[in-house]
Amino acid sequence: MSSKQKIYLDNAATTPIDSAVIEVMSELMSKVYGNPSSVHALGRNARVVIENSRKKIATLIHAAPAEIIFTSCGTEANNMALRGAVASLNITKIISSPIEHHSVLETIEELKKNNKIIVDYVDLDEYGNVDVTSLEKLLVESEEDTILVSLMHANNEIGNMLPIENIAELCKKYNAFFHSDTVQSMGFYEFDVRKFEPDFITCSAHKFHGPKGVGFLFINQKNRIKPLLTGGSQERNMRAGTENIHGIAGMAKAFELAHENMDKYNKHINDLKRYFMEQIERIVPEIKYNGNPKGNSLDKLLNISFPNSDMDEMLLYNFDIDGVCVSGGSACSSGSNMASHVLKVLQTDMNKPAIRFSFSRNNTKQELDYTLDLIKNWYCSNKSVKL
Ligand code: PLP
Questions:
Q1: 8, 217, 220, 292: which is deepest, by most CB within 10 A?
Q2: 3-state secondary structure of 356
Q3: What is the per-residue pLDDT across 282-317, written as a single tens digit (0 to 9) for each?
């Protein structure tokens, strides 16, 4: 591996855009430049691109096209669901978890402060899995309230997955609305919204080899919520602003590709993860996994705490210097090296350096071998490893 080549193992932060997606987007950028709200032919062409993309995406998750609202990203989709639900569905209580993405956590805290919403957090087990009994207890206790449950499907830092269908069932039993941040699992998991009937789920295209700056919110057709952005009738009055035509079409193409080959890609990613785990457990037996990678966990993600050594501060940067792109496992926002709210809640030993490795369909075993060799050199030659 030449030192100039980069090995990209940060696919939970974002993924490289698929070349077929770039092709679709480039063609549209040069040819379909009309405003979709214009009545002339170029405007109508743009409108067709958007509505075809909506149909494609809706079909893949078994939704009706009208249930898909395009947004600028996953953060906006989560904000729209939470703020819209509180503004329109008489929500008095939100039940969530302390290890949600900040776009959910900070929004809920703001709703608590400004809208007098009561907020309860579920208990987690030692691996960070939602304790379903504690959720049910909170639902029983709150029967007088109108409840919104907001629990993410796949955690972006530790990869734990929620049994989303069971949670949706439980919410139905107690008449609670259910929002799930599905940003990390969209494109990697077969959603059938008609089967498990969530109220809101969210998506961001850049997590599955689509473009950045585009996502969507699924709103179950039985719910009517107020828009987050006002000032235009786009998205059936649900999101004002001229649509990101090439972004939306790029997302639809990326979503289609992800679904066409989902089993194949997931198997490849799962094989990589299992290989990496086997090897790293041999090389540095003292590592500790954060989360539950051997249980119900996102295939693409592995969060590892390394034993203390002279390189504690430098581990993330050493990967970078040697051409391997990873995130600090304690990343508050991916890429940053701030203390993680997720690892704190899990009472992880924050003195040990943690790294989040996240794989994609583009990665190879050779890339993992190169990365494992680096780790072997650092840890096996480092006499000051404190176990
Ligand atoms: N939710 C989760 C679980 C995420 O991992 C991310 C991005 O890292 C987001 C929401 C925000 O998505 P976006 O980057 O599209 O705003």
A1: 217
A2: strand
A3: 999 999 999 999 999 999 999 999 998 777 778 999
